[in-house]
Design a protein that fits this description.
By secondary structure, the chain is of the alpha/beta class. It folds into 2 domains: 136 residues, HAD superfamily/HAD-like (Rossmann fold), CATH 3.40.50; 75 residues. The chain has 9 helices and 8 strands. α1 packs across α4, α3 crosses α4 and α4 packs parallel to α6. The longest helix has 21 residues. The radius of gyration is 18 Å and the shape is elongated.
């Protein structure tokens, strides 16, 4: 137990601005995958790619390409190759400095740590991409624990984001989950935590209507009464 609630942050769309470099990297990986299988390459649909961000990797790489553009018999192999190629492109973009944290991220995280909040980081993304984000952007400086769904599943700890949140919060007491998609809010509520919806990410006001609080920027977190207990 700690005197301040633990804060669980989602990654893409919450701390990392993935709209440009990551979406472009995934689109490039998708085009490569069509070519690898000798399939016609549809025009890039960045809205579809961005709209699928936040889904578990296994679902993401089956949702980020247009239905019907891949024969049913090839979908499993196509999704696996798509994940491999897009992850390679994403990691290259990260190492090339093509991604940024949202404005005020580092200052906000540092202030929350100074206030005594334990910080925890989660993601539905694959472990290689997630670990690269943590390393490239120095997020290890702020977060006591980090966990991707892929790692949690591999270790038998969780099968979805709800399980990841429960694993991170084991023994933590009061907590707040901070994310930009409805499943972040749902995972927090399932763990008995309060929730913050980040309106600047990939989810909109309607999607995040169930959050206890909503913010338009990361520094606004410092104005919320995050110190209150879940019952208070």
């Amino acid at each position: 137990m700690t005197s301040r609630p633990a804060l669980v942050f989602d990654t893409d769309g919450t701390l990392l601005d993935a709209r440009a470099a990551v979406v472009d990297a995934v689109a490039a990986g998708l085009a490569e995958t069509y070519g690898h299988f000798g399939l016609p390459t549809p025009p890039p649909d960045r809205a579809r790619v961005a709209g699928a961000i936040g889904l578990p990797s296994g679902s993401y790489y089956r949702s980020a390409f247009p239905p019907g553009s891949v024969p049913a018999a090839l979908i499993d192999d196509f999704a696996a190759e798509f994940e491999l190629r897009s992850t390679r492109a994403e990691v290259a973009a990260l190492h090339a400095g093509a991604t940024d944290l949202y404005p005020g991220a580092e200052q906000t995280l540092a202030a929350l740590v100074a206030r005594g909040h334990p910080l925890l980081l989660m993601s539905n993304a694959g472990s290689l991409y997630f670990d690269t984000v943590v390393a490239v952007h120095g997020l290890w400086r702020y977060f006591g624990r980090t966990l991707s769904l892929e790692e949690a599943a591999r270790r038998g700890w969780a099968r979805d984001k709800r399980g990841v949140v429960r694993r991170l919060l084991a023994g933590a007491g009061a907590a707040v989950v901070i994310g930009d998609r409805a499943h972040d809010v749902e995972a927090g509520r399932a763990a008995g935590a309060r929730t913050v919806g980040c309106l600047y990410g990939f989810g909109g006001p309607a999607e995040l209507a169930g959050a206890d609080w909503r913010v338009g920027s990361l520094p606004e977190l410092l104005e919320l009464p995050l110190h209150r207990s879940n019952a208070g």
